[in-house]
User: What shape does this take?
Amino acid sequence: MKFELTTLDEYSDESLLAELRRVADSLQGQRLTRERFDSLGRVHSSTLHNRFGSWAAALDKAGISESVAPRFRVLNREAVLETLREFAAANPGKSATEKEIAERLGMHRGAITRRFGKWETILAEVGLDPVPLGRRYTDEECFENILTLWTHYGRQPNFGELKCPPSVVGPKAYIRRWGGWRAALTAFVKSINESPELQAQPVQSAPSPVFQKDTPQYAEPVPRSISLALRYRVLVRDKFRCVICGASPAKDGTVELHVDHIFPWSRGGQNTEENLRTLCFKCNLGKGDKVENAQPGSQEGLR
Assistant: This one.
């Protein structure tokens, strides 16, 4: 039997980074998390954090990719302001929308105002004017905003909530287009019910899918984007909460929900209700492109 020390011989920067790479290699493709490192490493992750400033910085210095070890970066106000300054320099005279800046930061639309307050106030800090009032929103943009609010509150939103984040479309847009909020909601639900892909499909709990390469469900490639109607259907079915950890924006405003392919799109998974489920940002990032045979509501699949 070969005996080895459970601690490192030395604690130089290179020794610490080498240990980080050793543990990552030993996982053979599994996700590297701080918890897994602490159970397999010969040094605690807090040592890496203290030496290099953060766990993410240690991963970067060790050359470990985000596909192996996802980084959960904490967004601060200065990062938003710096991105706005870069946008202004590249687009002189153009007003920046929250959606444009959120996409640059890799965030979900509405996350910035939920954390840092009114968008107009953030723009003013870098000397930018807000998007001109009276903008003509498309039906799709108005419906997308309704779905964002419905997801955020976990219920049908009310008229007053159009004035508060995460709403990015004000009440006037709905009054101008449909004559009132109730009529706008009716138009939204009608668009969902009349969507061709959802015709004659009753809302029900999705069965645990059986993934086989020769099944018709995974035979043809499809666009990666999931229609608004199908996203709404899946979110309602899953009660607007993550089916892995139960997180919900209605209980925690920082939670971001995504509609995820159970059988990954990159491996041929289709945009069908039984192949989709609701995940929060953290659970979705942790999953990657793994194939998981778990039905919505199950705790299996990430174990």
Notes: The chain has four domains: 13-62, 77-125, 139-194, 216-287. The first strand starts at residue 257 and ends at 261.
